[in-house]
Specification:
By secondary structure, the protein is an all-beta fold. Helices cover 2% and strands 33% of the residues. Strands 1-32-31-28-27 form a five-stranded antiparallel sheet, with no helix packed on it. Strands 2-33-34-35-36 form a five-stranded mixed sheet, with no helix packed on it.
Length: 638
């Protein structure tokens, strides 16, 4: 279909006030906010649903999952990247629902002037929105009581540009946290900084690592009580991974646990009780590596942290072992690609589970752990749901570390099955890399079945919603030598689309059955976070710049908007001072969404750095036909 006629395809719901938009000669990518019309995709993405006689009613949970939404922040605000300790990314707001989401229009935008990947979500506290940029890691406070969110203050931390060359996968940040009147976030050059939320003045800054070791910091902090938890990046540079707790008010380091080394360094003591016997023993962070290699063993902590207030445990995952050449590091390489449970006060480990023993394909375990209580085999269990990069979806008892369910959610052939007795994936011997030997058709690629962009969960449906990948690779290895702060890699990779031809997909996953409920195939990789709401609407974005709203139960695409750049950030929603619900998302492609597997496909967008804020009909504070801001003047004559 010619692009000039795409606008003719906007459908009308006779039960709503949406008007038919017939604009001959207008390109599909054009949207006119004042007219209230927008162009949908020429060919809406195909949705496949699991067989069911009738769709469930609006109150039916398909899994029976319940979620603790502590710390129970105000419903209309957003204080942390995940909104709650459980990492649900669920909002109780429901002004925007399946009946009116098709009327979303751009309310206002904000450009921050940076071009690295925009991976963070904004925060909203009272009448102020806070955003942080990728390098140079600036923070802005935007006044939501003013038209277009005018700037209240700007904080420029001036991190060292040396860190840019040490970041493996773009000079990004994954977000900021709010606590005790302070914004707290990590700088790329290995500092954690706190900023007064009212004034924009620096309160404290703590140096956590050194880019000269290859370490950077890109992850979003988690605040629990008076502690803020942070970790490092740099596994591809041979940095040694760690997680640490800082005092929220002073920035003083309270404890630090390394991912490799002796039990003393890893904070493993008598209370450490892994469920599986192969993870029991003394100083496994040393003995499962060749002599001395644990010192540069990667296993960094650059993903998400969850917290259970009932057990006072934090949960997080570690990254790939270094170097990425497995023949150089025989052994399980503990504690790389591992999910840890730790006491939040002391940092002492309670249990651990390695998702990919002796990782040979760069399948980090840093993806989010969504905490829920879930009926499993007739018994309600306290679980964490983890969609791993190795393409297995895990439902794990979060009190013991026992794997209750492990089933593939994306195409894979590196493994032929899962041994529930040992808790180990069964490795396909034909897909094990060897130096200087090319292995064709290895799936998923090093990007994984799912990358870091976080999933969301809804207690109304009991489902988990996630952008996943559909990629494979040709892989060969060569020996890598360690030189501090330089690539400690050795993987030669060619990536391409897996069977089906699509690079991305957005799915609903039932954690109780280990099965997809529905899926939407995307031409480009789906590398954005997800947002679920009480209006039974789920939001996500694509690397080529589409921002979509779908029915949480059926997977039907209800609305799509093309943005100025690709979406690799995290959508959020809030109530404005006008008591209107808004949805916000950053557009600015970067990170691993820019690897050649995507750029080789026609239609890949340019970089950008714009925050888009949507509302029903595009209505917003102090904006609309004939409205002039109070601080403006007009030269028009009567």
């Amino acid at each position: 279909m010619p692009r000039a006629r795409l606008a003719d395809r906007v459908e009308v719901d006779s039960r709503s006030s949406i008007r038919r938009c017939v604009v001959p000669g207008v390109a599909a990518w054009l949207f006119v906010v004042s007219a209230g019309c927008f162009a949908q995709a020429a060919e809406p993405p195909a949705t496949t649903a699991a067989a069911a006689p009738m769709p469930p009613t609006a109150t039916t949970s398909l899994s029976g999952a319940t979620i603790n939404f502590a710390p129970n922040d105000p419903a209309g605000e957003w204080h942390s990247q995940a909104r709650d300790y459980a990492n649900s990314r669920y909002s109780p707001l429901h002004q925007i629902d399946t009946g009116n989401v098709g009327k979303l229009r751009v309310a206002w935008t904000f450009s921050d002037g940076t071009l690295h990947g925009h991976e963070a979500a904004p925060l909203v506290i009272a009448d102020t929105m806070y955003v942080v940029t990728p390098f140079p890691d600036m923070a802005y406070a935007l006044d939501l009581t003013k038209p277009g969110g005018s700037i209240k203050w700007t904080f420029k931390p001036n991190p060292s540009p040396v860190a840019i060359g040490k970041a493996c996968c773009d000079a990004v940040t994954r977000g900021v946290a709010y606590a005790n009147g302070k914004l707290i976030y990590n700088l790329l050059d290995d500092h954690t900084v706190a900023v007064d939320a009212k004034t924009g003045k620096e309160v404290w800054r703590t140096r956590m690592d050194d880019p000269k070791t290859g370490a950077t910091m890109t992850m979003a902090p988690l605040v629990v009580g008076n502690k803020v938890f942070v970790g490092n990046s740099g596994g591809e540079m041979g940095a040694q991974g760690w997680i640490a707790a800082l005092d929220v008010d002073t920035g003083k380091e309270l404890w630090r646990a390394y991912s490799t080394g002796s039990d003393q360094r890893v904070l493993i003591g008598n209370d450490f009780k892994p469920f599986y016997s192969w993870m029991k023993g003394k100083d496994l962070g040393i003995s499962t590596w060749p002599a001395g290699m644990w010192k540069h063993g990667g296993s960094t902590v650059w993903g998400w942290i969850s917290y259970d207030p009932d057990t006072n445990l934090i949960y997080y995952g570690t990254s790939n072992p270094s170097p990425r050449v497995p023949a150089q590091r025989p052994g399980y390489n503990l504690w790389a690609t591992t999910i840890f449970a730790r006491d939040a006060d002391t940092g002492m480990a309670r249990w651990a589970y390695q998702t990919t023993p002796h990782d040979q394909w760069d399948y980090d375990a840093v993806n989010e752990d969504i905490l829920m209580d879930l009926p499993v085999n007739g018994r309600v269990r306290k679980v964490l749901v983890h969609l791993d990069r190795n393409a297995y979806a895990y439902t794990i008892d979060r009190t013991t570390g026992e794997v209750l369910m492990a089933t593939p959610f994306s195409y894979l052939n590196w493994s032929t099955g899962f041994d529930m007795k040992t808790g180990m994936p069964i490795v396909n011997k034909d897909k094990q890399p060897r130096p200087d030997i090319k292995i064709d058709n290895l799936c998923p690629s090093d990007l994984g079945g799912k990358e870091w962009p976080p999933a969301a969960a809804s207690p109304r449906t009991g489902l988990v919603y996630a952008g996943i990948l559909n990629t494979c690779m040709h892989l060969s290895n060569h020996e890598a030598g360690y030189i501090a702060s330089t690539p400690y890699d050795g993987m030669d990779i060619t990536r391409y689309a897996a069977p089906g031809g699509n690079l991305g997909e957005f799915m609903a996953w039932n954690p109780a059955t280990g099965k997809k409920v529905w899926a939407i195939k995307e031409k480009f990789m789906t590398m954005s976070g997800a947002l679920a709401t009480a209006g039974d609407v789920v939001f996500y974005g694509t690397a080529d710049g589409w921002f979509r709203a779908v029915d949480a139960r059926s997977g039907k695409v209800l609305w799509s908007q093309k943005l100025g750049s690709g979406v690799v950030g995290q959508p959020m929603t809030y109530l404005g001072p006008d008591h209107r619900q808004y949805v916000a998302i950053y557009s600015g492609v970067g990170g691993n969404a820019r690897v050649p597997v995507d750029k080789a496909v026609a239609g890949f967008p340019a970089q950008g750095g714009t925050l888009y804020v949507f509302s029903i009909d595009g209505d917003a504070v102090g904006m609309g036909a004939g409205v002039m801001p109070a601080d403006a003047s007009s030269s028009a004559k009567p």
